Amino acid sequence: MNSKSAAGSGSLSFKEFFELCYWKTVKLFSKNLTKNSHYKYFYTDNFSIPEEFYKDKTILDIGCGPRGSLEWADMAKERIGLDPLADQYLKMGAKDHKMSYIKAYVEHIPFPDTYFDVICSFNSLDHVEDMELACKEIKRILKENGIFLLLVDIHTMPTLTEPQTMNWNFIREYFPEFEILEEKHLERRETYKIYSNVRKSKTAKDDAVRGVLTAKLRKRATEENKAL
Length: 228
What we know:
Oligomer: single chain
Mean pLDDT: 90
Strand order of the largest sheet: 1-4-3-2-5-6-8-7
CATH topology: Rossmann fold
Number of domains: 1
Strand content: 15-25%
Distance between the termini: 42 Å
CATH architecture: 3-Layer(aba) Sandwich
Shape: globular
CATH superfamily: Vaccinia Virus protein VP39
């Protein structure tokens, strides 16, 4: 496991402070904060992706949290978690993980163009400050024909830690050049429990303004985009 800093060394923002307080509270009441066996389902079965697909792949998890979301993917070439709080997570136990943690914001990802085979954003994109720049960076560092996996809460009221409002048309608005391989609109049955909602929820009603959007997208090759 290693860490690399790219988010600066200043004090935490108000939003980051509250996010860190959340994880510290979870740690206080959890026997094992870094328990992570539940993550594998969301990268594989939830999107009908076999585990073997990740062999020799470079994988990035945006807004990874401290629990070792990619620990299961020991067949991957490289597995990296990106989070502004990465340094704090290492102190909370993430230093024992085999995946790498990078301290950085999604608006400024410290990797070259077309670096990753797979990029994942689970319960994180509504936390960003600049959605347009964040999505631009995701597109920049994903390889042609690379896969982008998305789980995000749909909501119309911004909060301190989730300043972005989200709607069902999100992927068509921000990723129009990507091919939609899978898309689901799910009910939001439990507040602040996105993973539980993905596992247990039914399809949302057409007029729902809250819920969970899950999507599997493919970055089309340049020639494909020219043909559109």
